[in-house]
Input
Amino acid sequence: MKKFFAVIGVLLASAAMCFAQGDIEKSTLIKDGDAVPAVSIQMLDGSSLTFEALEGKVVLVNFWATWCPPCRKEFARLQKDVIDRFAGKDFVLLPISIDDDPDTVRKFMERNGYDFPVAVDPGRKIYSLFAEKYVPRNFVIGKDGKVAFYVVGYDENGEFDEMVDRIEKLL
Output
């Protein structure tokens, strides 16, 4: 009887994972090989940036939120494992917060000692061009301005490291 329930548990878990993966795919609006939209991105410091201005560089677009626990864990690794690793290379990290209040983002950055540039997307206008739901979301844009690959969620024991390795190969 225990084996029966174990098999049922595995089947239910597999079905849930398949559903979640299907939902992630459905909610992802820009896929591998797609060009990024021509938009102006508002930085927290008040400046603006466009994807067009970043062509010729590999860009990691990281959609995140201060209220998202996996986002916060992933964010803690960005300085050492991404910014420091790719310093001096044709690489740009572009974290875009989907928080509604830029002051919340500013306080989060100050409280945690982060001093790298971040963008804000209070109305989720940019985010809604890439996806419908789920953060963290990472889109790696190749030097040609097209999505090379994307990752949804944060897995500290593999997926993040794989993403960093794939960025290295694009450089």
